[in-house]
Amino acid sequence: MKKHLLSFCFLLMVLSTGCQEQNHNQADGSTEPIIFPKGEKITNDNFTGTAYLHMMIQSESANQTSVGNVIFEPGARTKWHLHPGGQILLATGGVGYYQEKGKPKQILRKGDYIKCPPNIPHWHGASADSAFIQVAITNNQFGPTVWLEEVTDEEYHH
Amino acid sequence: MKKHLLSFCFLLMVLSTGCQEQNHNQADGSTEPIIFPKGEKITNDNFTGTAYLHMMIQSESANQTSVGNVIFEPGARTKWHLHPGGQILLATGGVGYYQEKGKPKQILRKGDYIKCPPNIPHWHGASADSAFIQVAITNNQFGPTVWLEEVTDEEYHH
């Protein structure tokens, strides 16, 4: 019987290790695996709270599409902003928000994606309790991102 | 002792179930979780083997970027093709290949991303032994994809 128990303990250990390995690469406190690199802490004033950016693809004249991976810590968000050529967001982990001016806040979860129409002011970021990971695909054909005012705590929690 | 063994069995079952739940949404035979929908089997003749496409974002005049999730079964691949505005590929699961005309085949794994320059003939697809999942971001500003000849088995395995 003792031998059987030892075998079970070993099997338990192996299974348990297998589970842990699937979570080896996590975003700040969440259990979501990161697919693309976390990048560097954003230090410009276009964001509120702590967020990280890894630029994957830079825009250039031949293809004016830029792609970046953004990780927002809980509560972190962009300022209001707009893109003359529009933007596409792909949610790859955590729980986040997206809001267009004058419309209700939407919740974004892993597997969700959204098209921000050209010239529509909007913001995006993490929910208050969870980090949020997104791939941002920006069309710079008609000009760069225009940054606007901060998303107030009242707007964020509304 | 029997009681302890039963407790261990229960714990084993719980842990094992936990592991399985992380893999609940799999691409054909691989252990990779799918982030975006699998979509429909591709029935046009631009692909060799079995592949699935879920169009996430359609191109339109205001933002001529299209985004699609493609799942290639092992051995499946596109024909040679080119994009007048270029394309960006994000690898989200499995093991795949990318090759530009006249250059060596590159291996793509989860977390890799690649920029296909405008007007350069190339192909992409799964490796022979593993499915491959990619997000394809196409810039249609300068015209639609131009499809070319099939990737031969010799080219594929080279």
Automatic annotation (TrEMBL), chains A, B:
GO MF: dioxygenase activity
SUPFAM superfamilies listed in its UniProt record: RmlC-like cupins
Keyword Ubl conjugation assigned: no
Cleavable signal peptide: 1-21
Superkingdom in the source lineage: Bacteria
Pfam families hit by this protein: Cupin_2
PROSITE patterns: PROKAR_LIPOPROTEIN
CDD domains named in the record: cupin_HNL-like
Keywords assigned: Dioxygenase, Oxidoreductase, Signal
Domain Cupin type-2: 70-129
Classification via InterPro entries: Cupin_2 (IPR013096), HNL-like_cupin (IPR047263), RmlC-like_jellyroll (IPR014710), RmlC_Cupin_sf (IPR011051)
PANTHER family named among the record's database cross-references: BLL4564 PROTEIN, RIBD C-TERMINAL DOMAIN CONTAINING PROTEIN
Name listed for the protein in its UniProt record: Quercetin dioxygenase-like cupin family protein
